[in-house]
Amino acid sequence: MKKIAFILLFIPLNFIYGQAYAPAAGQPGSTAIKFDDERFVAWPTGVQVIRGYINISDTTAIYNGTNRASFGEPEDVLGEVTENPVNHTVSLGDSGIAILTFDKPITNGSGYDFAVFENGHSDNFLELAHVEVSSDGIHFVRFPSHSTTQTKTQVASFGLLDPIHLYNLAGKYRVGYGTPFDLEELKDEPFLDVQKITHVKIIDVVGSLGEKGTKDSYGNKINDPFPTPFHSGGFDLSGVGVIHQYDEPSSLSNNELNLVSIYAANGNLYIDLSNVESNELKAILYNAEGRKTHVAQLHSLQNNEIKLQLPEGIYFVNIVGVSSSLRKKVFLKSH
Q1: Cα–chain-centroid distance for residue 325?
Q2: N or C: which end of the chain has fewer CB within 10 A?
Q3: Percent share of the chain, pLDDT over 70
């Protein structure tokens, strides 16, 4: 019996430490999203950066006349990420912070809602950061993170990491590929409205195994390249791509909203608005992957009907009104 008990205890522990997450960009099962993916609908329009030390374990260390990271300017991360973001990056330094804002809030849609970009030069030279969000600019909530990278030996300044050991840590993917985040994970957090995220905070992970090191949500030290005592030390933020953006509701009343008919027939998807008088209606269509495919206004339609010829699959139709919205899931079969 003692031998059996030992085996039962040993297997779960081995499973925990052998946990595997999504692999590097381009590999099967990777969650990496390329900078030019059509899912991105918006980028940051405002930023505040608080630089961290180039070496938090030795704050007297100087590089280029300062003891804090100095590469890039905060405004460099505004707008779209490009294929070669050398001039589209700001270095945060150890425990440095960037807070980004947007013209419109990020909202909790189907699947991933935004992605954070870093300029790691390979699939394995990675510098990491925690990600937090806020719907009021005051209360921030951190995405739960996990690192199963070994913690016996310090990853050196130019050491390597394997993405399969990293979860919900920005910088998991190489340059040009964003690490995605899903607001659904935070939907039950108090003081947070996941439908209207106004601020995204990026906090550099101090990868030291010493007392200054950063821990994940399970209390594990996060081992990443340390020290990085250069002007470009710490997390190198290149931008944040928005996938789901909050749309202000129109003046469509609740009663009119109930008059909208959404159905599939003869291999087509129909949105029938013939019983609706208001011309301030917005219809938004998403596919099963959460990708926005169509947006239409009532006043731009002919005969008050939308007819869409689409591939077979599952679709989500949102009809947005002044204080409410109608959402319907439709399965479209080929005719």
Answers
A1: 24
A2: N
A3: 82
Beta strands in the chain (DSSP E): 33-34, 46-50, 90-91, 97-106, 114-118, 129-134, 141-142, 146-147, 166-167, 177-181, 197-204, 236-242, 261-265, 268-272, 282-287, 292-297, 305-309, 313-320, 325-332
Contact 315, 286 (CB under 8 A): yes
Contact 128, 215 (CB under 8 A): no
Q: How far apart are CA 64 and CA 71, in angstroms?
A: 10
What is the structure's pLDDT at 217? 97
Nearest Cα residue to 70 out of 53, 84, 87, 88: 53
Report the distance separating Cα 115 and Cα 79, nearest Å.
Answer: 14
Q: Tokens 């013209």 appear where?
A: 103
H helix intervals, the chain: 2-17, 254-257
Helix (H) or strand (E) run with residue 267 in it = none
Q: Tell me the C-alpha distance between 170 and 69, whole Å.
A: 18
pLDDT value at position 8? 34
Gap between the Cα atoms of 237 and 91, Å rounded: 6
Cα 176 from Cα 143, distance rounded (Å): 22
Over the Cα atoms of the chain, what is R_g?
A: 23
- Is residue 230 within 8 A of residue 168, CB to CB? The reply is no
Question: Do 200 and 240 contact (CB within 8 A), yes or no?
Answer: yes
Q: Which residue type sits at 279? A: N
260: pLDDT strictly greater than 80:
no
**Which tokens is 122 given?**
């390979």
User: What is the residue-wise DSSP string for 50-84?
Assistant: EPPBS-TT-TT--BTTBSB--SS-GGGGSS---SS
